[in-house]
Amino acid sequence: MKKVLFYIFFLAGQILAVNAFAQKTDTLGTEDILNMTLTDLLNIQVVTASKIQQPVNEVPATVFIVTVEQIRNRGYFTLEEALSDLPGFQFRNINGFNSYIFMRGVPSQNNLILLMIDGVQINELNSGGFYAGGQFIMSDIKQIEVVYGPASALYGTNAVSGIINIITKRPDQKHSHISIQGGNFNTGMIDFNVKNNPSENIGYSFSGQYKTSEKANLKGARGDFNWTNDMENFENDLSFSARLKIKKLDAGVDYQEKRASMTTNFKSVDDIYLDKNSLWDIYFLNAYLKYLNEFHKNWSFKSTGYFRDATVKSNTINAIVKASDSDPGMQIGYYRPNQLAGIENQLNFSPSEKLLIIAGLIGETEWLSEGFSETYSNSQAESPAVPSKPKILNNNLFSYYSHIKYSLIKELSFSGGIRHDFSSYYGQVFIPRVGLIFQKNNFIAKVLYNTAFRSPRPWDYTYGTGNENLEPEKMKSWELSVSYKINEKINISGAVYYNMISNKLTKQTNQEFDRWINENEVNTAGFELNADYIANNLTFYINYTFNDSYDQHENLIPEISRHCANTGATYSLSKNMNLNLRANYLGDRNNPTIIPATGDDKIDDALVFHGCLTYSGINNFTFQLKANNILNTEYYHPSNRFEGRYRQPQRIVSLKATYNFGLKNN
Amino acid sequence: MKNKLKNIVFFILILQTLTLKNDLLAQSREPLIKAGFIEKFTHFIQWPEASEGFNTTNLFVIKVIGENPFGSVLEELFSSVKVQKQEVKVEYISTIEEIGSCNILFISGSEKENLSKILEYTTGKPILTIGDSNGFGSKGVEINLFNEENYIRYEVNKSAIEKSVLNINSLLLSYAVIIETNGQN
To answer: What are the residues facing A433 on neighbouring strands?
Structure first.
């Protein structure tokens, strides 16, 4: 309580003192403007790293932006594709109902990264892990902000390895389009978007998308004989998004439904499972209402109410056990509804360029299934009964947070903050962070100390045989990041970090079932290097990441490679045509188990090339020819599910046609 | 001891905030950023050789017609840079007759009523027209700056550009809101 009072008085003192004497300043000069590139001038600002809009160079974190141009020119089809060219990302793509994204050397079930759409979290509520894949409407994304490192001091649980915030396009331009795409592996997509602003203060948009893909050929020998030649695999995604802006009010609804085969979740050869007819049917419904009032030149207030629903639908067939001579087999039905409602009120006070204070209050209540409700049919061919509603747990959360950015001198600013959670589920957690940001001319350096935590969710407690005694995973992180703009065309940046995770949840396997236990530490020492070049007809990037992730016994963490690198270029062949080529390299890494097909636990390194040709010279049409894995490289990802590895997709070629109505919003 | 330390830190920080009183008065960034955009546009646009005959001053000439929204920042910004290897001259004019043979014409919002006559003059000439007023892009101004939630963006009237003798780089288009109208509305 004393701590709370201290911070309240501290903030009040700062506010009173500054308000009394300070006047607004602006240090931006013509020299700064001349040193900026066009994209700088477009002033890409981020809201994620500090919960308010700030230029990237001023936020206390390493931030990368995937821009709308990159999404369009590279033809990104899924979320993981859009992240794959950034430094620091590694993947466990199971070619199934989910794909797992590892950031800065920490493997997880996607529950150490916070995923948001327009600032509202979309991690699955019961497990805390987000779903990657094709359900995101890529054509409606304005930018993807990727914040590296822990951010629990602002966002609470799950913001451990980093944050990914998908910012959708604003509904304030007149623009509509329709796209259709087709390719091998029965890959298809149709999407549309309608935007209109009938008056200055009103704008609305509506987007929809359907995607389908069989992803890869994993049949028989092509998939290490994990599955039969009759295996079925698919992912079908249906998504809608609506936005309404009326003066200071913003409302949004996002609906995503993913229907995917569960075939790749298990082996079917030499195992009990059938590799067809299963279905994982999960939907995410996010709705929000935001009110932003800049009621004074120095003060602004933002209130956000939100409702989230992440439900595994009752028609889900998690697995089908094959019939045998002695057993008719069965289908296993799952059902798991989860809802959350919350409100966040945030006050921003910026009496001068030297001082920024953010303070917020959050209240949430959630209704989570204690576990899956399951039903079992009487045979392999018979559908299971619809599962009943499982027992629902009600959890409440109250949080307050406060952050300050203060310019000590013109070139040096201090950034610090705290968040204090009071949860009926995981108790009290107090999270601090501090940082220093130095900026002079074209050079920026950030020294950061961050902490984070992830509270176990119902899924962790009940997975397999269950474990009631799980404790939160905790992380401490030190980071130094620098960036230097050599000239208008070339920018280089780098980050060195050391992360310590304690109480890491680790899958413990006994003879029949698995469960999660707090056992491991994950200590990661690493660095990232990145260079960007932008000229009139050419943009080019290259990045390299080194991760040394090891546990408390000095053993390397499985699934994490020490080396990864990405490079790519977009070249304007003419006014209406550009060509993008890019490459992803991931070094060798260990599989969690021995791989039967090779007899060891090594996943070989791989270099994979992708390309995309875009032409927009015929009236309002845009055509895009895209090839993933151009050279048809055979490569694999690890598996933490069964003894084996996951073959990655062969070459996928697709063609997309887009028709833009009226104004074309690029 | 801890409380004493906190109090000391608290008062030091309050004292530090008192030094803020020397801050400069706020100035809006918008004119400066818009001037910056104009400078960046010159990197992505190629004026034809013919323009050397059109503009015989050996200077790269930027003219602002109507009320000057930039103050002095346009001159300050271009005083230290060359465009197309030429020194830059910024002029402020009030009539169509004064447009003459400039390379860039910034059309102020105050010229809304004269816009069609101005565009009639510039069409077909190697003059890049830039505006920052709502609707100017769809009326035929080649590049129109606008404010989108405190970010400066720009729209490009592709039809007007294609009619002109200027060569615009596609990267400039890729960041723009494209307008396909022909400027007749």
So the answer is: A417, A450
